[in-house]
Design brief:
Elements (H helix, E strand, L loop, with lengths): L10 E8 L4 E5 L4 E6 L3 E5 L3 E5 L3 E5 L5 E6 L2 E8 L12 E4 L2 H10 L11 H12 L5 E2 L2 E3 L4 H12 L7 H8 L3 H12 L3 H18 L4 H7 L5 H12 L12
Antiparallel strand pairs: 1-8, 2-7, 3-6, 3-8, 4-5, 4-7, 5-11, 6-9, 9-10
GO molecular function, one term: DNA-binding transcription factor activity
Keywords: Activator, DNA-binding, Repressor, Transcription, Transcription regulation
Protein name: AraC family transcriptional regulator
Length: 252
Amino acid sequence: MSSFREVPRPVIALGTDYPDGHVIAAHRHDRDQLLYGLTGVLMASTPQGAWMMPPQRGMLIPAGVVHEVRLFGDVKMRSLYLRPEQLGTPDRQCKVVGISSLMRHLLSEAVTIPAEYDVDGRDGALMTLIEHEIKRLPVLPLSLPLPKHASLGAKCRAFLTSPTPHETIEDWCDHLGMSRRSFTRLFRKETGSSFVEWRQQACILAALPRLAAGQAITTIALDLGYDNPAAFSNMFKRILGTSPRDYRTTET
């Protein structure tokens, strides 16, 4: 998929709105990409993992990385396309990042600039500042490894989009036709974590679209198998380092 390959500018900005439930099929870009969502939640998945981007955060996607995008809620997206290797991601992995107030304003202005702007003028200076600021964005712990094993990977992806927290490890073993011992060995080999640890993290990430939509924390906690909202909030804070309430409202 071409990303302004023919445009001789170091940074190109684009604003696009998407409806709830929209899916962008697996594709890749010739340029590095920064996604920023004013509203809604975005989930990008690659063969290696999944990344959940809440409102007012961003996502870095290196050039050449094949990724599928799912959108939850009406998403107002701003995208930057940069020359390859500008994101500083030598591991070639996607990353969810915090968006500073300065970067938010720069993005708002960038989408009004024509693709073939004057690199020596004011527009060029703004885009150069973006290249500097993008390297300062903090990485957030909003990723989840996904197995390359076909049937296990499919089960994990289905769980992430529609959690079934009351299913036991035996239920998963039966679904995949494996013994418990074989399953636990395969799961750790494929994800680097235990089934319980992975499921806890997956449930927390799956809660983000519901939090962004303003659903009650108590309802989300009970749906995800927690006995009470305090237990959910404690796990949320342990994994993401912040309260679920911080994901219910956008930053100012």
